[in-house]
Amino acid sequence: MRNSNALSLLSFILLLVLAGCSSQSGRYKIADDLAPTDAPDVSKVEDAHPKFEPYSRGGNRKEYSVLGKTYRVLDTGKGYQKTGIASWYGAKFHGHLTSNGETYDMYSMSAAHKTLPLPSYVKVTNLANDKTVVVRVNDRGPFHDNRIIDLSYAAAHRLDMLKTGTAKVKLEVIYIENPESVALAALQETKLHYVQVIASSDKGRIDHLAQTLADKYQVKTRIQQSGNLFRLQLGPIGRQQIASQLHQTLQQNGYPQSYLVTE
């Protein structure tokens, strides 16, 4: 009985030691990244659909350090473009948390970037074959000086770069404004907008058309004279969106030469 208890205790200790060694090996079960062994058909996976999303709090520290190098996260991705080398990451990271606190799915259209705010939407073009994909950036990386983005397995498949492992790409952020900010800016807008309809030296024609359009569209008009030329404009209109809609309507109704004027 004593020998049996001693063997049981020894087995238990060995299990603890092995478990400890396992925990020291890191959070990933696979030591080196690789492609999935039994991947589903990802050729039909849709591009990420850009929409406004507030930047996450957890994934956007102003700066962070990896492998002795410090990175500063951009305040916004608006206008961001860059050309460089893309790589991709797969099975080793599949199912683990991204820097955004989400679960990495190598079969989705996602990506990792070192400094873009999370989440961001990016159009990626493989410059070798002009194939494109739109991905949602929700992770950090790749931490190699010569690489600018890490793509999911599905995105890399769409860009036809799985065999080469890397590709020269162009990145273009698709930036979506906060709808609330857009609406607030519209309410605070102080500029006046006019739709220039037509110009003519025939003052009688301009006067008649001004009355006709004012009645039809229920908007004020003004006539500006420059020498012998008279310009008919509809307005003023306080909202640019409304002025743009009226301009589009006029172009469709026989005034393709009309254009917007802002003061």
Automatic annotation (TrEMBL):
One GO term of the biological process aspect: peptidoglycan metabolic process
Membrane topology: Lipid-anchor
Keyword Amino-acid biosynthesis belongs to the record: no
Pfam family, one: SPOR
Residues making up the signal peptide according to the UniProt record: 1-19
An example Gene Ontology CC term for this record: cell outer membrane
InterPro entries assigned to the protein according to its UniProt record, in alphabetical order: RlpA (IPR034718), RlpA-like_DPBB (IPR009009), RlpA-like_sf (IPR036908), RplA (IPR012997), SPOR-like_dom (IPR007730), SPOR-like_sf (IPR036680)
Localization, UniProt: Cell membrane
Keywords: Cell membrane, Cell wall biogenesis/degradation, Lipoprotein, Lyase, Membrane, Palmitate, Signal
GO molecular-function term, one example from the UniProt record: peptidoglycan binding
Primary enzyme class: lyase
SPOR domain segment(s): 187-263
The enzyme's E.C. designation: 4.2.2.-
Database matches in CDD domains: DPBB_RlpA-like
UniProt KW Glycoprotein keyword: no
Function according to Swiss-Prot or TrEMBL: Lytic transglycosylase with a strong preference for naked glycan strands that lack stem peptides.
Alphabetized HAMAP family for the sequence: RlpA
Family indicated by similarity: Belongs to the RlpA family.
Name recorded for this polypeptide: Endolytic peptidoglycan transglycosylase RlpA
Natural source organism: Shewanella insulae
Phylogenetic placement of the source organism: Bacteria, Pseudomonadati, Pseudomonadota, Gammaproteobacteria, Alteromonadales
